[in-house]
């Protein structure tokens, strides 16, 4: 990108006074040398002065305080959701480790066979199938109880 194109992109910012003093001087110097940029800077300056002359809307009372309060509530809620997700993940991992440990102990104590209704409950497939079924049922009941508790709070 050439220096002319860079200066042309900064004309709007220069007209509104948004550039640093050094950048503003560079743009002014370029506008003195370049006729098209000088005209464009004058047009943008006209727009800027016109916008500055418009009446400024008054902020409703308490808008800033309400906005800050809402942002804080949303940040707190987001932090709570992250904390709950981490806790849930940690509990799931802990649950699987406990299940694996219990399966190992059950296999050790029963010698690898514990049959109920013709099914060896300490084989890996049946143990984890029974465990998963019980875990899903428990999770469903817990979710239902927690949702009822959350609804009562509101």
List the topology elements.
Elements: H1 3-16, H2 21-33, H3 35-53, H4 63-110, E1 115-116, E2 119-120, H5 124-153
Antiparallel strand pairs: 1-2
Helix pairs in contact: 1-2, 1-3, 2-3
Task: Give a description of the structure.
It is a single chain. The mean pLDDT is 84. The two termini are 58 Å apart. It is elongated and about 95 Å long. The chain has two domains: 3-53, no CATH class; 63-153, no CATH class. It has a two-stranded antiparallel ribbon with strand order 1-2. With 154 residues, the protein is an all-alpha fold. It has helices at residues 3-16, 21-33, 35-53, 63-110, 124-153; strands spanning 115-116, 119-120. Strand 1 and strand 2 form a beta hairpin.
What descriptors fit this protein?
154 residues; 2 domains; two-stranded antiparallel ribbon; 5 helices
What would you say about this model in short?
With 154 residues, this protein is mainly α. It is built from 5 helices and 2 strands; from the N terminus they run ααααββα.
| Lateral arrangement of strands in the main beta sheet | 1-2
Number of helices: 5
Strand runs, count = 2
Strand content: under 5%
């Amino acid at each position: 990108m050439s220096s002319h194109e860079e200066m042309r992109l900064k004309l709007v910012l220069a007209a509104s006074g948004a550039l640093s003093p050094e950048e503003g001087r560079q743009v002014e110097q370029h506008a003195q040398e370049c006729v098209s940029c000088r005209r464009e800077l004058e047009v943008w300056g006209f727009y800027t002065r016109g916008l500055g002359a418009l009446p400024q809307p008054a902020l409703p009372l308490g808008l800033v305080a309400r906005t800050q309060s809402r942002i804080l509530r949303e940040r707190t809620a987001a932090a709570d959701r992250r904390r709950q997700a981490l806790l849930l993940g940690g509990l799931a991992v802990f649950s699987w480790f406990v299940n694996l440990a219990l399966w190992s102990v059950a296999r050790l104590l029963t010698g690898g066979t514990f049959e109920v209704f013709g099914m060896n409950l300490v084989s890996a497939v049946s143990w984890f199938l029974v465990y998963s079924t019980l875990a899903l049922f428990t999770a469903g009941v817990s979710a239902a109880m927690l949702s009822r508790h959350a609804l009562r709070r509101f």
